[in-house]
Fold this protein.
Amino acid sequence: MLKENLVYDRPEGFTDTPTHYCPGCTHGVAHRLVAEVLEEMGVIDRTIGVAPVGCSVFAYNYFDTDFVEAPHGRAPAMATGVKRVMPDRIVFTYQGDGDLASIGMGEIVHAAARGENITVIFINNANFGMTGGQMAPTTLPGMKTSSSVNGRDVETQGYPIRVSEMLSTLDGVGYCVRRSLHDPKNIRLAKKAIRMAFEVQARGLGFSVVELLSTCPTNWGMTPVNSLKFVEEHMMPAYPLGDFKVSDAIKQIKI
């Protein structure tokens, strides 16, 4: 096929492996963006990913990079060890909201507070996806899940945690932003943010995290199309997109 006629090509950072993700899930989009960025930066051969427990537990099957598997919620702690032992590597965690914001809250907060020079890709789909769609720390008020069948009641179950806003208050964080994967424009913006996050690490400028609003059609009980609308109409008002912390040194980076 002539290059000018090429519509789609698999990034070098991907293996030739069909994914296990549900139809309409935007985990696959996030994976592709990460793979494209690593390829464009020329760092695939020196990248180490840390897979979590959750929907992306098999991420190591899809990225053509070295990978390690972390216990539930402990990916930032494992990434810390890997990066300190091999500081010349690009080290990233890829975590869902159940893994990162629930059982792993201590790990993410303290890795960020220490300013560990790692990159975190944080997928926020407002539920525990892999285990049956239970309520997560990010579940919206009134949102029905398998463990909040009448909708999240904030009086008894508390309010959602806005992770990016919280992490941005920590001195060790250099780059903290939120993007979305619900349409082409925002996917392009998400890729730019992921590229910046990895550039921050490559230049030794501290902890970087990109939160991505993502869909979960299966557990939300929606079609893929309606789940994209749900992100725009319900998740974005609760989790506004934007840059929550960009240090002065990072503002000078041109990509």
User: Anything to note?
Assistant: The beta strands are 47-51, 66-69, 90-96, 119-124, 173-180, 207-213, 242-246. The CA atoms of residues 76 and 107 lie 6 Å apart. The radius of gyration is 17 Å.
